[in-house]
């Protein structure tokens, strides 16, 4: 009889333990999602703008240049996801640039195609030189 009582009492405790672990995992996942919401937004936006191969190449550049931080600013006046060099722009222009993820990605796509021929050639150049 004692064994029966213990097994009856143990099942609710197991359920609570499982729920507690699940709740903790869910909380951690949600906090990560909120922390990376802008990053995910930019990544999803880029995925919709280019093919998979170009996405992978552009993503490698962005990760190295700005770590997917749309507000990234360097000491050499490079801004946003692509770290566009903007030494002669006004603060108003820079603020507008940093607040527009789509504009940053559109500019980066056009720049890599115009300067290197493709995003993947730009990524190769960046890997070789350390900049693009």
Would you report the number of β strands?
A: 2
Overall structural domain count = 2
Count, helices: 6
Sheet with the most strands, sense and barrel status:
2 strands, antiparallel
Question: Nearest-angstrom radius of gyration?
Answer: 23 Å
Shape: globular
Measured as a percent range, the helix fraction is over 70%
What structural class do you assign from the helix and strand content? mainly alpha
Strand order of the largest sheet: 1-2
Share in β-strands: under 5%
What is the element string, with H for helices and E for strands? HHHEEHHH
Describe the structure.
Helix content is 73%, strand content 3%. The protein is globular and about 50 Å long. Helix 2 crosses helix 5, helix 3 packs parallel to helix 6 and helix 5 crosses helix 6. It has 2 domains: 35 residues; 93 residues, no CATH class. A two-stranded antiparallel ribbon has the order 1-2. The protein is built from 6 helices and 2 strands. About 11% of the residues have low confidence. The chain has 132 residues and is mainly α. The longest helix has 34 residues.
């Amino acid at each position: 009889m004692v064994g029966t009582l213990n097994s009856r009492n143990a099942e609710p405790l197991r359920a609570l333990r499982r729920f507690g672990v699940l709740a903790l995992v869910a909380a951690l996942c949600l906090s990560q999602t909120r922390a990376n919401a802008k990053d995910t937004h930019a990544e999803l936006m880029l995925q919709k703008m280019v093919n998979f191969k170009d996405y992978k190449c552009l993503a490698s550049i962005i990760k190295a240049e700005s770590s997917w931080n749309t507000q990234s600013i360097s000491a050499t006046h490079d801004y946003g996801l692509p770290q566009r060099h903007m030494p002669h722009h006004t603060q108003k222009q820079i603020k507008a640039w940093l607040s527009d993820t789509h504009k940053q990605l559109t500019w980066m796509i056009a720049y890599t195609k115009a300067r290197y021929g493709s995003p993947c050639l730009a990524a190769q150049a960046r890997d070789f030189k350390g900049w693009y």
